[in-house]
Amino acid sequence: MINVFEVNETNNMVEHENLDVRTITMGISLLDCIDSDLDRLNEKIYNKITTKAEKLVETGDEISREIGIPIVNKRISVTPIALVGGAACKTPEDFVTIAQTLDRAAKKVGVNFLGGYSALVSKGMTPAEENLIKSIPQALACTDVVCSSVNVGSTKTGLNMDAIKLLGEKILETAELTKDNDCLGCAKLVVFCNAPDDNPFMAGAFHGVTEADVIINVGVSGPGVVKNALSKVRGENFEVLCETIKKTAFKVTRVGQLVAQKASKRLGVPFGIIDLSLAPTPAVGDSVAEILEEIGLERAGAPGTTAALALLNDQVKKGGVMASSYVGGLSGAFIPVSEDQGMIDAVNEGALTLEKLEAMTCVCSVGLDMIAIPGDTSATTISGIIADESAIGMINQKTTAVRVIPVIGKGVGETVEFGGLLGYAPIMPVNKFSCEAFVNRGGRIPAPIHSFKN
Amino acid sequence: MKKTIITVVGKDTVGIIAKVCTYLAENKVNILDITQTIVQDYFNMMMIVDANEAEKKFDQLADELEELGKTIGVQIKMQSEDIFKAMHRI
């Protein structure tokens, strides 16, 4: 029988350590909406989303109430729109109408975000995919909750450098179009290498073509819970440290598993995966950087950070895997700068640089995330950053991503405020040397060799 | 049988259990087990109850208990047993 200590432990995690389920994300396939007539396509998309996700928010709130654990976000991911809109959209403007339809549908069902305004171009771009990428700045500027992602490379295909070059330009253009709103558009755009089909986290969520018609994916969180558990084993050796992380990750993941099962049953939709990620928020005590400090670093970014993060990420997976029947998505520790108070402090104090962040992404998901850079950064430099990050993913057979925000009109030392879960960020310096000739070569970087690992 | 856990935490005062139990009886919620301690004047109680016969919905019971807690000056939470079993049992 459940005892009072166990009940108190759970309730303390919620009340004092920010335990929550970060998101229930409903993946919806739009492949059956495809039509060569743009108006009919938009109508079908709107109808499918508003029918399938009609009870998503209500069900999420009901489960949250019943088990006493907050479910912070309810989201939707859809089939990459470049595939859905290919037959009907002849221009980037045509694609923008779909973005507006997605925005309307998402608001109608009351979800926080909708992801899938995406293109998968790891090897080449179709005209439709190129048009979609070109439409991204406009689409993100005229919608509120639509998120966009582009997969520009994979371990199997290499890197599509033409797409990477184009995206450098589009990221700058997105920043320019949303400059009155702190360049918020860029916070809703992720560039991936090895993008997963079932990621429930934004801005990179989309519903892959290998997925079922409708599916429920759940993203768990809980950096505060891990930090608090570690504070009780200060000074102990690595064995104790790792055991503590594993046990805590197990408990946190079980919450996600329960929520996923309940949501799946009540909505009559199959359960997809649990994403085992430590997702921070700007709230104090809900920070991955604070876990690194608890492990023994003065500040995130100090020597030892990459090793500590590797250990953390691995133990979270080891503990979490046993707690869930299906694990997928990104599954790792997130290190978004603006969404993590400890990261922000580390940047402000000069402990953490862009280059160290890049090294950290070699051992954890998901990449250079929510990093504000000066507004006068050139498009080719942004492409260079994307290429570097994608190369790490390609060679190491892992997902990596770039979500940088060039803040128009601001420079190093200034701060940009996004609000809510997106937080605020100090603008970080970027290496001044040019990579223009490299990025402008055009073509692809070939797939890497899969043997002779060193 | 689906069980529900009710926790009551707050400063100790006269009649906490009486008031909570009266409310539960009026709403056809059967108490299966009570554990209660007082640590440094702080009242800490956990009840395992069967709310399957209750006419009111889970939401309403949870809201009304929370309200009742406010009038007594304690925090009352009502949660499905599922969450604790999921987290603390393999």
Q: Care to describe what's here?
A:
The complex is a heterodimer of chains A (454) and B (90). Chain A has helices spanning 4-16, 38-52, 56-67, 81-85, 92-109, 127-141, 161-177, 223-231, 238-267, 288-295, 305-323, 341-348, 354-360, 379-396, 436-439; strands spanning 21-28, 71-78, 113-120, 146-151, 153-154, 158-160, 189-193, 214-220, 271-275, 367-374, 400-407, 415-417, 424-426, 444-445. Chain A contains 15 helices and 14 strands. Chain A is of the alpha/beta class and 454 residues long. Chain A starts with a helix and ends in a 9-residue tail after the last strand. In chain A, the strands form three sheets. Chain A has a nine-stranded mixed beta sheet. A three-stranded antiparallel beta sheet of chain A has the order 5-6-14. Chain B is of the alpha+beta class. Chain B has a single domain (4-88), classed as ACT domain (Alpha-Beta Plaits). In chain B, 38% of the residues lie in helices and 38% in strands. Chain B contains three helices and four strands; from the N terminus they run E-H-E-E-H-E-H. Chain B has helices at residues 16-26, 58-72, 81-88, and strands at 4-11, 30-39, 42-50, 74-80. The interface between A and B is medium-sized, with 22 and 23 residues.
